[in-house]
Amino acid sequence: MSVNPIQLWQDLRRRNVFKVAAIYAASASIVIQVADVLIDRIPAISEPDRFMTWLIATVIAGFPVTLVLAWLFEIGPDGIVRTKPGSATGVGAIVISRRIGDSDPNSAEHSLEYLSARDFQLS
């Protein structure tokens, strides 16, 4: 199955994924900078390096979760509602998989696929 990149791009824009990514990146940057400034002034934190490492790891781990939630849900006047599937791609996932049947188990060849929810419908 091939994905039309233009349709995928339009669907990402329609679902506000890019806006959410930009807001998340800006907010995360501000939180990390404020924490870095305040970390030395808070005596309760005994190991500031460990705290900053934990904070940065949490911010990085939260980024893909935020993008998935931005893809699935929309915040509007009606509250948080599930985004209506578009005609372009529907709900899907990008999967990185190892080639099946590869004779060399240490081979680094991988494939990148976009799986649409239409592929999984039972009808």
What does this protein look like?
With 123 residues, the chain is α+β, with helices and mostly antiparallel strands. The protein has one domain (5-120). It contains three helices and four strands; from the N terminus they run αααββββ. The chain has helices at 5-14, 17-38, 48-72; strands spanning 73-76, 79-82, 92-98, 110-116. The strands form two sheets. It has a two-stranded antiparallel ribbon with strand order 1-2. Helix 2 packs antiparallel against helix 3. The protein is elongated and about 50 Å long. The two termini are 19 Å apart. 3% of the residues are buried. Mean pLDDT is 75; it is low at 87-91, 95-99 and 119-123.
Overview features:
single chain, about 120 residues, alpha+beta, two-stranded antiparallel sheet
What is the radius of gyration? 20 Å
Count of β-strands: 4
User: So what's the overall shape?
Assistant: elongated
Distance between the termini: 19 Å
Low-pLDDT runs: 87-91, 95-99, 119-123
How large is the count of helical segments? 3
User: Could you give the order of strands across the largest sheet?
Assistant: 1-2
The percentage helix is 40-55%
Instruction: Quote the average pLDDT.
Output: 75
Structural class: alpha+beta
Spell out the helices and strands N to C: HHHEEEE
Task: Specify the biggest β-sheet.
Answer: 2 strands, antiparallel
Number of domains: 1
Beta-strand level of the residues, as a percent range? 15-25%
